[in-house]
Amino acid sequence: MAGSGGPPEEARGPDENEQVRQRREKLSRLREAGEDPFRITAFPRTHLAAEVVAAFASLQGEEVSVAGRLTARRRHGKATFLDLLDGSGRIQLLLRENNLGEEAYRKAGELDVGDIIGVRGGVVRTRTGEVTVEAAEVTLLAKALRPLPEKWHGLKDVELRYRRRYLDLIANPESRRIFQVRSRAVRAIRNYLDRRGFLEVETPILQPIPGGALARPFITHHNALDRDLYLRIASELYLKRLIVGGLERVYEIGPTFRNEGISTRHNPEFTMLELYQAYADYQAMMELFEGVVAHAAQEALGATRVERDGETIELAPPWRRIKLLDAVQEYAGVAPEDLLDPERARAVCAEKGLPAEEGTPVSTLINNLFEAFVQPKLVQPTFVFDYPTIISPLAKARPDRPELAERFEPFIAGLELGNAFSELNDPEEQRRRFQEQVAMRAQGDDEAHPMDEDYLRALEYGMPPTGGIGLGIDRLVMVLTGSPSIRDVILFPQLRAEKSD
User: What mean pLDDT comes out for the span 176-195?
Assistant: First the structure.
């Protein structure tokens, strides 16, 4: 073996192979020659790849400097063509011995696919018409010690894509596009709300009482305080405290955590937009919600129409509106009165082959019916509203029908995107609802809402009529990009432990 014989044992990974060994030897030879690429701290890049291609007419014959990852090489006689990938896209490089000199051309020939390089040269167009940088100088900026996966241009292994997102982003332009769309959509949402007088705020992620949603929390322990804390399942109750304090329009975009299963629609860590507006109700929130989504689509995609599963979905307002009980009756053939009675709801679920064990909360029974028979049919944007109060512990009841809450959930392409309602601001009624939830917890429903005395105290100081929205950013991006799984739109989703060899 040439050079020092490779790195010490502690510097090697657990899955070394012959290709890695050869690349380590190349790095050792470079270091012995005083050319350690990892000592280079910067490269004076003048243009991105896409900028060179787009501005060819003005750059033709001019010298530029580009930098990125070497992703392919092709030799043609005494010329070598390389593909360079940077954050904007791909550009071709042309290396000639008579331009670089014999020694520099030889060194360039030892570059490996995956290496990070910088290139200075003139902008030309080849005989095939491709915009190309003809290299006058090539600099190795970082040595890739591992080769890219076989057939990396496709990287079809879904598990590998999620587990090693860095490879996915190198290999798949569509993955890069998805996260660019995500960034533009979030920025558009912020701009939309800021222009309407909303104030962006931050609320605790570690909370003493996990509230604001019906979900099982993650628990941790703070040693200095010697108390258990919970990763938030929602920011709702803190944001509504701010409404009490006089901040009349507030929102937060941030991580939320729920100790639930992993699926194509669920990740235990996800991103939520939550907002609250004083002196507004759930009807106003419907208008705000559809406006936010349409604006995000327009800014992120340049259009309000998206394609998903062969369907063209129009996100521009107005969206369809249908009452929950009417939707279940229309799609599942279940009468409204059967949904509101726990025993009858259980019997209906049993008849339709859905789980209906004794003691199953009515909220679960209704949800099972809805998910099985209604939700898949809601392809075009739809607001399902007027949910039973018994499953809406934080929503204000309809004055004319107190068994129903002024609550809605938005659905697109069979995906639930969020939750919203006219906020319950009666502290006595809120206490009664909390007590009902506490009783449900005692009966085994570990997703029921716990008692929160400080939130009740805040309500007792007076909260104005308020409308609120929770919007799942990840699911919105699934709609905007046509992604089939939530893992496609989260850079680093939670996965089961990787199996050892």
Answer: 98
